[in-house]
Structures are given as structure tokens and as C-alpha cells.
Amino acid sequence: MTSPDGMNWTSQRSASQAEWRSIMYGNGIFVAVANGGMDDNHVMTSPNGINWTMQESPPEIDNWNSVTFGMEKFVAIGANTEEGETAMTSPNGMDWTLATTTPLGTWSSVTYGNGIFVAVDLFGMSGNQVMTSPNGISWTTHASPVAGWFSVAYGMDLFVAVAYLGEGTNLVMTSPNGMNWTIHQSATIAAWTSVTYAEAEQIFVAVAGGGVGTNLVMTSPNGMNWTIQESAAAAQWISVTYSNGTLVAVSLDGKVMTSQSS
């Protein structure tokens, strides 16, 4: 679906029936990746968000979870196979090359900032739940606090990750370089699913897919100190993004909520 303002939405047809997990815009094109689907291709592209074209993706992997754009290339990550091939790169969203990552894990989110790609892992319990890459091809794992890290974002010269599950409120971690991480307290215990940075407002915003009542949004001016905010509805909020002064969050059951700068 597309919207010119985050409030009025139009349903659009995807290129294939699949579990589309992530979408990114870069170099004049939208790129979406899927986890599973009806065929062997798990990437689609669009010049306008309305008309979508299926693209051939590496047939070895069918579980892509996240895609980002940086250094004039798209980088996608997913769940590990026995071969460890859980990243792929493309200069244009159409031609993709596999990259090998270690260790085994379910890489849930990837972002780009300050010349480096950073990915976080959802189910790993070894404490090596972060990997970084200078180019999207060669990856290095790093020690991190143990939790179910679901989303990572970059802003204010800082990487910020939020967790879907963990111990108490130890559900946020930050890093200045993607390699050295510090745990922080979330505003409440909730299943935090997505975090983004609102550049004009200079604030991080996270949404949750589960929690108490409508306490499913939290904000932070620095990625470390968080304040709970009331969401527009009690829903399984799965993703939040920011553009042109508007925050937009979507839920698994088709709800959309927006917040605009004053």
C-alpha cells in the first residue's frame, strides 16, 4: 500500500504472493525482500511503490528478513543455513550476490551508518548477536548483551537496537561503532519490534508488537533514556519509519498510526 502523507492509503498489488518482510528505498528504486513465498524468487523492485517487478534472487536462500541501502548498494540479511550464507548484495536491486556470514543465527534486522553495515540476531543466545561489515560482503561478529534483538537503527552517530524478548527491561542496546555495545533499560517490558530515528526531531522512536494496554511506543532523545508513549491503539505494531516530518507505524492486523511534528 502507498500513501502521499501517511494518512490516506491505497492498496497496491505486489509482484508475488509472499511474506514480504522489509522494504528500502535507494538510488531511485524501492526494494522489498521476502521470507518464504510461492516461488524461488524473494525480491521485488518498484520505481514508484505502485508497480512491482519480481527479481531473481539466489535460489539457495528463501528467508530474507531485512534490507538496507548504503555505499551505493542494497544489502539484505536473513536466517542462516548450514552453509552460513545469510547476506546478499546488489548495486541495483536486480542483480544479487550471496555473501557468507557466521555464526549461525536468525539475523532479523540490518542498517547502515557511519560507513558500516550492522545486523542484529533474534534467537542467538551466545552473546555474539551482532555482526558488522564494511562492504556488505565480509562480516565479523561481535559480543553483545544477550536478548532477542529484533530491530536496529542509526542516528546521532549511534546505533540503537531494540529487543523482542529479554531479561526484564534490558531491551535496548547502543553502540557508537557497531562493535562495542552497552545495555539500557527500555521504558517498559514489551515486545519491541522496530526502532527508527526521526532526524528533524532528533529523537529515536520504537514500537512494540505486544505489551500492556496501549503502552506500545517509547521515545528517546539519545538512545539511552526512554520514555513510554501511548500508542493510537492496542495492536501488534511491527514496523515504524520516518520521512518528511511524519512517523508512520503499521501493525500485523492492518492498522496504521501516524505522528507528525508540530
TrEMBL record:
Q: Which superkingdom does the taxonomy of this entry point to?
A: Eukaryota
- Name recorded for this polypeptide: Uncharacterized protein
